[in-house]
Amino acid sequence: METLIILLIGILVAVATYLILSRNIIRVILGTAVLSHAVHLLILTLGGLKTGNVPLLTEADAPYTDALPQALILTAIVISFAVTAFILVLAYRAYQDNGTDDLDALRGTNDE
Amino acid sequence: MMNNIIVLPLIIPIMVGVILVFLRPYVKTQRVISLVTMLGMVGISLYILNKIQTDGILRLDFGGWEPPFGILFVADSFAMLFVLIANIVTAICLIYAFSSIGESHEKMFFYPFVLFLIAGVNGSFLTGDLFNLFVCFEVMLLASYVLITLGGKKAQLRESIKYVVINILSSWFFLVALAYLYGTLGTLNMAHLSERVAEAGQGPLLTTISILFLIVFSLKAGLLLFFWLPGSYSVPPTAIAALFGALLTKVGIYALFRTFTLIFYHEPSITHTLIGIMAGVTLVVGSIGAIAYQDVRLISSYNVVIAVGFILVGLAVATQTSFEGSIYYVMHDMIAKAMLFLIAGTMIALTGKTKIDEMSGLIRNYPLFGWMVFVVTCSLAGIPPLSGFVGKLLVGEAAIESGSYVLLALAFISSIVVLYSLLRIFLNSIFGETIISPEDEVPLKKGMIVPIILLAIGTVFLGLGAEFISGYVSDAARTLSNPSVYIEAVLGGN
Hints:
The structure holds two protein chains of two kinds. Chain A has three helices and no strands. By secondary structure, chain A is an all-alpha fold.
């Protein structure tokens, strides 16, 4: 199971890298979103996918599942949600003002 | 020692920031409250710093979860010195913002976001948990994303997209490194990590993970991977640029020092050599950048890069003396860089030009301002009795002791370049023929010169009063070079 998930993470990272390297802002943003999913899976996998009981001492017997990776992922998901929302708005504003969503055209004038 | 007070540097700015969001139309009230808050924070930081000297390292276990299970804050002298100077610089930058940032910014939540930014910065300095460090980084970065785009000029939007994307990527690497570290060692508490690395030995896998952390923090600190820095630090309004130049890279520097003195210190021949090489290249490339450009803001930005290289020389050499030197230099650099950015912004505000050969003879029109440029030049070049001197002396001394002559040479050649790049500003723009006639002279606002003078007083005080703060600095350096002190304070005595 771990191997399968790791392979999936690899595919996600490959897709995300492809997207981030393109010139279109929206694709770059989608790339970062996919990338964040990949790392969330990675945290889950490296924390161990062993099946176990819920980590509540009075409710269940050992072995318990490690709950910490899930707490970490939850935090990371919230953060990446906020950042993605922000950068989407930023990209839209930049598109409105600069009239392009092509990152090559956003390089800036070279007079400085 | 447990103490609730060390959460205040994080919680006060957040709470006040939230309140200020609701006071949007009342600009004057926002100004007063934010400045009072920052001054209060300076007071609190001073109090905590002195308390550490008598009581030892303070910590706070949130929710009563004892380490290594819960998240905790740890305040040692190293962290608190950073917090103290960061708060002082923020307060002074706020004063500058009052007269320069403009009402449209002030009504668009400028003050709340500055407070959120400083909350993230303080949290990053104080946290004792690596994942919590990530969270505090994100708090700081989100606030900085907003501050860098505030105003929405074309150049700002253009540069901020790059800034945001680079930071998303580096945060991603941070998470990857955290995942591997958790998978390997099963903990994220810094003291506990240090203990486990020491028990298990820093094998090839852990060294690889440490290099991932090195990449992440280097991106944040602008060590070698600083390609995003000059562009994005030269577009926002002056007060914001000064805050960024003074604070944001220092958070990365703090994280580098913390991880490579507390956790990954067992393989210095790999990690610290790599840091040394990166610092050396940063010094060279930063120096080239500082000479190459005519734009005062770009010159200032490359000066930030040079300073990062210099401070990290102290980490690469890794002796107690070199840590002391780096700490002195970081404190000096926060104050002097804020001053440099404020001066650059003021020059642009006064003349309407950005390039040094388009300005001339400002000392005739604004004598006091001209002298302030002279002070910052001397201070950054490290001329005694100003604040840059002590740090440079100690780093140099440690480099000689440990035989790192290449780094020593690069560090001191870069100081000459710093002097040259700033003298170029001085000779071109401050001296020379006066081209602004008295009628066209834009009046220099009091609100602009006062913060610059305050920072100048700060740099003089740090230089002359080095004896006065040496107790704190040597305590901080002692903790850095003896990880067991930190571990004992966190994990011992439960």
